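Narrative of activities, Objective 1.

The group set out to show that a structural description can be obtained from nothing but a protein's sequence at a throughput compatible with the screening campaign. Below is one input-output pair from the validation batch, recorded exactly as produced.
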Amino acid sequence: MHTVEEYPATISPALLSSPSENFTHDPDDWPDADPLDALVISDIHLGSDNCQAKALTAFLQQILDGEICTRQLIIAGDVFDSIDFRRLKKNHWKVLSQIRHLSDKIDIVWIAGNHDGSADIVSHLLGVRVVEQYIFSSGDQKILVVHGHVFDDFIEDHPFLTWIADSIYYILQQIDRSHYIARLAKSRSKVFVRCMEKIQRGAIALARDQGCQVAICGHTHLAKAVTQGDVHYFNSGCWTENPTSYLTIRRGRVELHRHLTAAIEGQALETELASA
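Output recorded for this entry:
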């Protein structure tokens, strides 16, 4: 696990992985006078059985209630698992309703993902901007946000193998609700690791070309924070497995946060201890 000291002062990931921690911020940590410049989430996959919609609705409600103060919410792709609204459950519709209400209060930018379908449908449905990539400034940092699938040619070159891998990943998540086995399988897959590294390299190269000091992606579902040369790379992880994750950005400082859903917190802890 990375420590804060391994990163420059302006980029300080806070990896909250112990189930004994508080997995949402205390409201006192979000004074109105000092809101976040941005909060980044990605890979919600509404419509999927693995979507952690209940945890996300609680999180979005904190923003709506002003407990978490941010100037903008950036959704880095794959809000939907597919544009088949018949698959959406009650909590999934609630997430969309919260995003719609938030769009009246703060700036929301939706980065198009490979699962999201038509940008026109999404934009009209939720009243948010939908773009392919987004660049903004925070403090002295220029930050690029993309979903990341444009750097992943494996899903286009090998659609059948991608379907098989996704199916196995889904089954492992269903077998082990702590999602430890699914995460372990991903980390041991040479194909996944190569794709993840290719996405990271592509995002860093694009950020460098655009004069950005920070590159942020989703797509891989693996939360990450690394520094490569003059560019800092972050992946905002996902909301389809435990722990879920998100990024906060304030005055050029980017932090990566993880938290467990309360329903399986104890089970996840037991699994992690058993593997130690």
